Every structure is written in structure tokens, then in C-alpha cells.
Amino acid sequence: MADTTNILTLEHPVLPVLTQRRSPRAYTNQPVPADALKQVFAAASSAASCFGEQPWRYLVGNRETSAEAYNKILNSMGEFNQVWAKNAPVLVVSIAKLHFSHDENPNAWARHDVGQATATLAIQATELGLQIHQMAGFSTDKIREAFSIPAGYEPVAVFTIGYPGDASLLSDALRDKETAARTRKPLAEFVFEGGWPGLQDERYDQADV
């Protein structure tokens, strides 16, 4: 069952699952079934990539079945993120393979393609009633050391996977972020047909959910 908390309202209609995707900080302790995890990562595999390289790699820490990996990922995070992320049942690191397999040339689009795969994963998760919260607040050095990640591969982001929980159980500051109105820039601010416009201002006041 899809999560229908804090639905995003857009200026044009889109698939409902896109408006339901969000980045919660409140999670239940309900484990994520193995089949559901396989589905979300299968969705990632459907994403487009340059030369079909599929440069994404995912390190998964499941609190129930791979607790050591879970703790390694958790310990790589900044304290602010650990406070709430420790409640999610699954933690994941997305990683980019930085060279093409067919000729070993640098893949300048690897991180872009990892982002595409993770975005696709997030939509599948939402369809299953799960949510993910992607984070930049982690130490790539800690991840690299903890998992012996070789040269040529770069950690991109860390994210949670789990069933969204009760925001009232969060601290005041986190609850405010969880329940803040979700808004997005109008299309006119980022879609430019025919040429580059002379925008006067960029807006950075949008809710971070």
C-alpha cells in the first residue's frame, strides 16, 4: 500500500506514485521482506545508462540479516543523520563504477546514471509502501575503508529503506522537517525552450522533503 502522507501538489498532473515519493525521517521497525528488496533493486536495474554500462553498485546493510554491514553504514554517517536513520531497517550505499567496462575509459556519466537508478528504485519502493531517504551526510573514507572498496569505484550517497512511521515520535526539529509543506519550483524556473533565459533569482526556499 502506497504511503499517502504529505502528498506533493504539482502544477500539472503526474503519476500519483511520483507525488507520494518523499524522504521520511520517521520509520517503523517493521522489517523489509526479502522479495520487496529484490523488487526495488530490480527496478534500479531497469534504469537507462550510457552504453548500457549500468555503473551502479549497492552495498546493503539489513539490520536483521547483515547487522555488521548495517552498523558500518550507520557509523559512516554524520551524527545528525544517525539519530533518525538508526530506526530504518535497511541502510544502503550507492556506488559508481568510474570506468567503462568495454574500453576502460573514464565514464563521466557514471554518477548521473547511479542517480537515475536510485531514483527509479525510489519510485518502486513508494509503490510498495516503502520510502527511501537519500543522504550526502556520510564519510566516503569510512565507507571505503569499512568495505574495502577498490580504486575505480566511488561512494555516491547513503540511503534508508523502510516503512514510514509516526512523525510525532521525532524530535521537534526533525518533526518540523517531516511535516513541512512540500513545494517545488514552477516549470518556468527550470525548463527553457529555445534558449537560456536571463533569470534574475534562483529560489532555495523549497522544503527539503
Descriptive overview:
The protein is an alpha+beta fold and 209 residues long. The chain has a single domain, classed as NADH Oxidase (3-Layer(aba) Sandwich). 33% of the residues lie in helices and 14% in strands. The protein has helices spanning 16-20, 34-45, 67-76, 79-85, 110-127, 140-147, 172-179; strands spanning 56-62, 90-97, 131-135, 153-162. Strands 1-2-4-3 form a four-stranded antiparallel β-sheet, with helices on both faces. Helix 2 (34-45) crosses helix 5 (110-127). The chain is globular. The mean pLDDT is 94. This is Nitroreductase. Residues 19-77 form the Nitroreductase domain. Pfam families: Nitroreductase. InterPro entries: Nitroreductase (IPR029479), Nitroreductase-like (IPR000415). Keywords: Oxidoreductase.
List the helices and strands and how they pair.
Blueprint lengths: L15 H5 L13 H12 L10 E7 L4 H10 L2 H7 L4 E8 L12 H18 L3 E5 L4 H8 L5 E10 L9 H8 L30
Antiparallel strand pairs: 1-2, 2-4, 3-4
InterPro entries: Nitroreductase, Nitroreductase-like
GO molecular function, one term: oxidoreductase activity
Organism: Hymenobacter arizonensis (Siccationidurans arizonensis)
Quick take:
This protein has 209 residues and is α+β, with helices and mostly antiparallel strands. Helices cover 33% and strands 14% of the residues.
Ranges where pLDDT stays below 50 over 5 or more residues in a row are: none
Number of β-strand runs: 4
Q: Give the count of structural domains.
A: 1
Order of helices and strands: HHEHHEHEHEH
